[in-house]
Specification:
By secondary structure, the protein is α+β, with helices and mostly antiparallel strands. It contains eleven helices and eight strands. A five-stranded antiparallel beta sheet has the order 6-3-5-4-7. Strands 2-1-8 form a three-stranded antiparallel beta sheet. It is globular and about 60 Å long. About 2% of the residues have low confidence.
């Protein structure tokens, strides 16, 4: 007779095997696709800009391009290349991460600095521009005298208590005067006190933290519709990443090194690399997807 314990064990094992089978049969779901769909449905009826309609087409619309030489027609999926599009944003950040990685290898003293600012209720273009100006003032202040170079990227979050802007800096400096940095940054943003952190670069993946998306797809999708709209309208056309000093000087050389290792963008089988697109927008989007300078 089989013992009850053994029966239970067999049932458990069978259940695991069944789940495993079911898991394998399930189509692979891509989280980013879900985030895109959530953002689309929330913005639908709220936002009616070209950018929004390009975002709607992204990943869904089939495009055609004709080879200029042999006239062969090729199909490809349209990509919007908008930096808040969860489907596209990694393209933009990927090159940045590689540049930072190579730069960090060339310097001896990488330091990761985080500057924060008090939350505020409404996100506007003006507010973001003020933040960018504050970063530039901070960089030009005497605090940065001994900083040889680096980069800064701004991240925007909202966890329900207003908008929060913080910047990640990666700098090449022997030391950072954290107390004075806190006072100086506080003064620049008009606060008595500002939270500033210096993180150890040795045991953290600082490249991931410094070269970040302006907003994570999962976070953008989780916001209420009005908030997504406010964000998308406020950030349009603004820059959130800057490099300076030795990094800015080395960036072209580093990009050239990366490009030398990259496969060339897809060309027609006849060998021609020039195509006729349906519209100028489509040509630009394709170029942006394969832009080597990014
Ligand atoms: Zn061809
Ligand atoms: Zn996209």
């Amino acid at each position: 007779m089989t013992s009850p314990g053994l029966v239970k064990q067999i049932i458990r094992e069978r259940a695991i095997q069944r789940r495993e089978r079911e898991r394998k049969q399930l189509p692979l779901t891509d989280d980013n696709e879900d985030f895109c769909e959530t953002i689309r449905s929330k913005l639908d009826g709220l936002l009616d800009s070209n950018q929004f309609w390009n975002f709607v087409r992204c990943g869904n619309e089939q495009q055609f391009r004709t080879c200029k030489q042999c006239r062969k027609v090729e199909t490809y999926t349209y990509r919007c290349c908008i930096r808040w599009c969860p489907r596209c944003q990694w393209h933009i950040v990927k090159m940045r991460q590689r540049v930072i990685q190579l730069w960090a290898q060339k310097i001896a003293q990488p330091k990761h600095l985080v500057l924060t600012q008090k939350n505020f209720p409404v996100l506007t273009r003006r507010r973001i521009r003020e933040h960018t100006h504050a970063l530039a003032r901070f960089r030009r202040s005497s605090i940065f005298r001994n900083v040889r170079g680096g980069c800064v990227s701004t991240e925007i979050t909202n966890e329900g208590n207003g908008w929060h802007l913080h910047s990640h800096w990666l700098v090449d400096a022997d030391w950072l005067d954290i107390k004075n940095i806190s006072i100086r940054w506080g003064k620049i943003v008009g606060q008595n006190f500002a939270i500033v952190k210096v993180r150890d670069c040795r045991d953290r993946d600082y490249v991931q933290e410094v070269a970040k998306y302006v907003v994570e797809g999962s976070e953008l999708a989780s916001w209420p519709a009005e908030q997504i709209n406010e964000f998308v309208c406020a950030i349009r056309g603004l820059r959130f990443f800057f490099s300076f000093g030795t990094l800015a000087a080395l960036a072209p050389q580093i990009r050239a090194e990366i490009n030398a290792q990259k496969p060339p963008p897809p060309i027609c089988e006849c060998g021609c690399s020039e195509f006729i697109y349906e519209s100028e927008d489509d040509a630009l989007a394709w170029e942006a997807m394969h832009d080597k300078r990014r």
